[in-house]
Every structure is written in C-alpha cells, then in structure tokens.
Amino acid sequence: MSLKELLGEDLYTQVMEKAGEQKIAVVSDGNWIPKEKFDELNNDKKELKNQLNQRDEQLEDLRKRAKDNEELHNKIKEIQDANEKTVADYEAKIQQQQKDFAIERALRDAKARNPKAVKALLDLENVKLDGDKLLGLDEQLKAIQESDKYLFGDENPFDLQGGPNPHVNTGNGFPSNNNPFSQDHFNMTEQGRLIRNEPDKARKLIIQAGDNPANFGL
To answer: Is Coiled coil there in the keyword field (predicted)?
Structure first.
C-alpha cells in the first residue's frame, strides 16, 4: 500500500506540502516521515480542530437565531455533524500512522530482514500505542525471534540487487536461493508438494519470499 493510499488524498497532500523537498518513503518499506514533519502535521490537526470548534460555536449561535426555521436547524445540525466526523477521521488517521511508524521502527531495531513479512505474523489488534510506547509487541516479537530466527539478523538473505544471497542459509536446512515461492524461482509443482507434505517448511519459505502463508491456505 502506498503512502497516498494509506493517508487518503487530503492528508497525503498536506504531508507532501509539509515535507517540502525531503524524501518521504512508503511505511511498508521500513521508512518513515521525519519526526519534525510529522509533528507539524499533528499540530495542523489541532489547529483544524480549533477552527472547526469555532465554526460550531458560530453555527450554534446561528441556530439560536433561526428560532422556528426547521429547515435551517436541520442544515446547521448536518454541518455540525460533518465537522465532528472530519475531526474524528483526521485523528484516527494520525493515530494509526503513529502506530505504524512505531511498529516499523521496532522491527528495524529488532533487525527484521523483511519487516513486511514479520509484520504479517503479528496480531496488530493486540498491539496498542501508549504515548511513545508500544504495548503487546515485545512479547510477540520475542516469540517470532525464537520460532523463526532466520527472519532476523545482520546478514541480509538478499543481495544488493534484490535477489537471493546464495551465501546465506535461512537456518532451516534450505538455502534462500532455492525458494519455489519466490519470484525468481517460482515453481507451482514444488509449492504444492511442500504445502501438502511439509507445511511448516512451506510456511517459512512463503514468509521468506515476502508473502503471507494465509494466501496459500496455511
């Protein structure tokens, strides 16, 4: 998912305006918007809320003056509800973005070789952001590090051109350059055999290839 798809047209435009010429990378790639730029956007959210509150006060004053004009009353109420929804949606996007940034940083600090693959194994519903601290993530990461050690480490299982690194073994008895689920070595016959006969190995190979085992019925 691109940053524009994640944020939506309006929020994405504001982020780009605030970032200026500085680079903004897609979150799923493990990169994140510079904190100072994100703080500016967060402050804009507060300013937007203040402006909408002022409009609500003006609308409430107008409603009182409208007296028995039911049509005008209904229109004012409609505008007030739209204002509240705008603020709520904006805050929800900011909060989700903050959570995503924190998770990506945590995966990078944990030396995840493929943050996207590791993230797919997390139960994100049980991960909460409390201020700057993630709750419920450390336990999950520790469990994955113990069960799937090959997903973490300083050595990259891919070479600088993005292909498999033949010098790195995944730690499960199969080299990273012999993965039938990868784009370079795609093999449906071998995939089917592994899924039927060696589901655990298939699951690890699928994750190594950057996909989700659930997409293969595992």
So the answer is: yes
CB 180 within 8 A of CB 191: yes
Output DSSP code: residue 180. T
Calculate the CA dihedral of residues 42, 7, 99, 114 and round it to 10 degrees.
Answer: -140
- Nearest-angstrom CA–CA distance, 152 and 208: 11
| Cα separations in angstroms, 131 against 90, 92, 108 | 18, 15, 19
| Cβ contact 33:19 at 8 Å | yes
pTM of the model: 0.46
What does each of the 218 residues of the chain score in pLDDT, given as a tens digit? 455 665 567 666 665 665 554 444 444 444 445 556 566 666 776 777 777 777 777 777 777 777 777 877 788 788 878 878 887 888 888 888 889 888 988 998 898 888 888 888 999 999 999 887 899 999 999 999 988 888 887 654 444 344 444 444 444 444 455 788 887 888 888 888 888 888 888 888 888 887 888 888 88
Q: Output the CA–CA distances (angstroms, integers) from residue 163 to 23, 157, 177, in the order listed.
A: 25, 9, 8
Domain boundaries, the chain: 3-109, 155-216
